[in-house]
Design a protein that fits this description.
three-stranded antiparallel beta sheet, 11 strands, mainly beta, Immunoglobulin-like, four-stranded mixed beta sheet
């Protein structure tokens, strides 16, 4: 059972500066343990039904309208998957102080866009992700 939520630094980055609306947008997420003690975290395993990471939500805001372009900030909200602690115990990472873990995820596996085709239209967007209560840096996402 998770007694204490992890306290980590969250950093996000994209491989490219811009994307087309039909491109798969990959987000590289790095969690760094800046705590003085080792922390046990769930991150990418077991793979949740949506394919996204554990404990994350994202904000994606249009820079033109300053409004969210998301239907759901976390796609896993659409799932009803439950685990017992016994099922999860082998999936925890033990992050030592100053140790990091980096994984790449499809943005569409984390969020659901509020568009008819679930793609982002051309424009500029600001994106920020949270892992439990830890907020990442924000990035500008350009869709051409």
């Amino acid at each position: 059972m998770i007694h204490d939520l992890p306290v980590v630094q969250v950093n996000i980055e994209f491989r490219y500066a811009s994307f087309k609306s039909t491109d798969e947008i990959l987000v590289r997420i790095t969690l760094t343990n800046n705590n003085t003690q080792e922390q046990n975290i769930l991150f990418d395993k077991p793979r949740v039904s949506t394919g996204g990471p554990w404990g994350t939500i994202a904000k994606v805001v249009s820079l033109k309208t300053n409004e969210s372009v998301l239907k759901h900030e976390n796609k896993a909200i659409l799932s009803s998957q439950f685990y017992k602690e016994e099922e999860l115990k082998h999936y925890y990472y033990n992050l030592k102080p100053n140790e990091s873990i980096t994984r790449e995820f499809k943005l569409r596996d984390i969020v659901v866009f509020d568009t008819n085709d679930y793609n982002l239209p051309k424009g500029r967007y600001e994106i920020q992700l949270s892992y439990y209560t830890n907020t990442s840096n924000s990035l500008i996402l350009i869709i051409e």
